[in-house]
Amino acid sequence: MNIVKLAIKNIRHQWLDSALSILLLAFGVGAISMLILVEKQTTEQFNKNIQDIDMVLGAKGSPLQLILANVYHVDAPTGNIKVGEAKIITQNPTIETAIPLAYGDNYQQWRIVGTDKNYALHYSMKLKQGNEFKDEYEATIGAEVAQATGLKLGDQFLSTHGLDQEQNDEEHAHHHEYTVVGIYEKSGTVIDKLILTPVETIWHAHEEEPSENVASVETDSTLQPAPIPAIKKGPMMMLRPAHAPTAGPNDNKEVTAYLLKKRTPMAQIILPNLIKDSKMQLALPAIEINRLSQNFGIGMDTIQAIAILIMALSFISIFVSLYNSLKKRKYELALMRSMGASKWTVFSLIQLEGIITTIIGIILGGFLSRIGLSVLSQQLNNSFHYQFQITDFSIGEIILVGTTIAGGILACAIPAYQAYKLDISKTLAHE
Amino acid sequence: MLHFPDMQLGDNENCLILGESGCGKTTLLHLLAGLRTPSQGEVLFNNTSLTPLSTSDRDRFRGKNIGVIFQSSAFIASLSVLENLMMPLMLSGQIQDENKAKELLSIVHLDHKIQKPINELSIGEQQRVSIIRSIIHGPKWVLADEPTSALDNKNAESVIELLTSITNANNASLIVVTHDHRWNNAISHAIRL
């Protein structure tokens, strides 16, 4: 027998009193730790996928939608742009790389993206099996796609038109057969959820059936690269393209967006001017995501406030239950004193009971947050193929645990002090 | 204000403190046990005066040298018989010898209930356990507050017999504070308040 064991036995003996405190604490801690993890993981995911993408060039519309659709692949694209028109940006000297992205098809709801080798290179993807796609209708697939669809090296599959339709939708079936030539290792980036193929595949697939929302070949041959707007003399002159973009055979083809990496910070200032009269826009991922998380933040703050309130209630509950039990157990504590327990021993006993109750609440809260996270993850996975890591742990949670224990110590400080001050003679004489 | 006469007790000597209700018997017992301090005078144990000791030193002295039996036998409700018997040993920092508890319990025929929750024992059984608890840590003095006043003659007799024999066997002085005259035959040295 020691004092910790005694405290645990006492808590078990009056478990109904402790149960409410523990439950309240578990919910409060659970909600906050879930918020911490959601915030940490979304930020990580966002940052991992932004990696050096300075700008996204796409069709006019909501810039946030453009970012979400093309960097994170969670929203519908804003529309398509012409390769030729985009050259004013993609071939601009201030741009280091421009990665084309063309959408339009899916396989079992996993998006097929027409692109070039730079896309996988950008995210430093490693191949687990096979090779990078080279020819049309060759596909290199992400780890999560491979796992979910069961596609293996050398397998052939039929794409479906659109981004979300089911495979058996006859009306939208293309009957173009893709061959899996490679499977990437899991990277934690958005490519895990994508099927990559040369951009030409998408152009080719849609040649016969042009439609409103997919990258397609326009028959309008009069289209020329956008003219370079005249720039007045000044420092901006230096950044003007040295020569008009060269015309190419694919100028009339369409892509959904270009992911751009700039060569100089000036690009951000000068490039938007070059396309202000066109149907294109440049969106900055960092700014849009910042705006998104600010809006997100308001909701998070509300939940956090409620969770803190629940925790405060649980501390009051710990206080009340210890305070009440002290009235009943005064005689017991006086008895311990008569057997040689010091004032500090009975003080620590009450304090320990509060701390142990708090710790049980924290542990339970940790479990609750993981359960909540896995439910949320399941839902997100169903709609966006996004997942949360439930085995994750954050520094914020250590701070949460520390603060909660401090709150528990504070909540039982008064009952513990009363135990310390107990008049043993009066209590034992039932005065 | 209560006044008590000077009194003295030799080693291994038992003593009866008799008095009617309300004359301060329990107060005197609490003074002797160091559970409270007198406004005047002092309590000496083998030349150790309790009065000038700090609260924690008094707690320590009491834990080591004194066993107390209260009027109503009280226990820590969340613990078993054995665990309650371990408390005086734990609180006075001694080795928690379970065999000693078993040995002493067998004297009062309760060794088979050693693992039972204390609240499952009858009042009579609880009182026997509280007697064991007052002696288990090897105190030099056992103080008992009205240990028999609620008992019928037969039970009172066996408690008197148990208390005197068990303290005697463990070399402790027994000091009984009571108004119960059934003690008169067991302890000859009596002080009347």
3D structure, described in words:
The complex is a heterodimer of chains A (431) and B (193). Chain A has 431 residues and is α+β, with helices and mostly antiparallel strands. Helices cover 51% and strands 16% of the residues of chain A. Chain A has helices at 3-13, 15-50, 63-72, 83-90, 117-122, 143-149, 199-205, 266-274, 285-338, 343-384, 395-411, 413-421, 424-428, and strands at 55-59, 81-82, 95-107, 110-115, 127-130, 138-141, 156-161, 173-184, 195-198, 254-255, 257-262, 280-283. In chain A, the strands form two sheets. Chain A has a six-stranded mixed β-barrel. In chain A, strands 2-10 form a two-stranded antiparallel ribbon. The longest helix of chain A is centred in the C-terminal third of the chain and has 54 residues, at 285-338. The two termini of chain A are 31 Å apart. With 193 residues, chain B is an alpha/beta fold. Helix content of chain B is 36%, strand content 13%. Chain B contains six helices and seven strands, in the order βαββαβαααβαββ. Chain B has helices at residues 25-32, 55-65, 81-91, 98-107, 123-135, 153-169; strands at residues 15-18, 44-45, 48-49, 66-69, 141-145, 173-178, 190-192. In chain B, the strands form two sheets. Chain B has a five-stranded parallel sheet with strand order 4-5-6-1-7, with helices on both faces. In chain B, helix 5 (123-135) runs parallel beside helix 6 (153-169). Chain B is globular. In chain B, 40% of the residues are buried. The mean pLDDT of chain B is 89. Chain A binds chain B through residues 1-2, 6, 9-10, 12-14, 331-332, 335-345, 424-425, 428-429, and chain B through 26-27, 30, 33, 35-36, 55-56, 59-60, 62-64, 68, 70, 74-79, 83, 86-88, 90-92, 96, 133, 137.
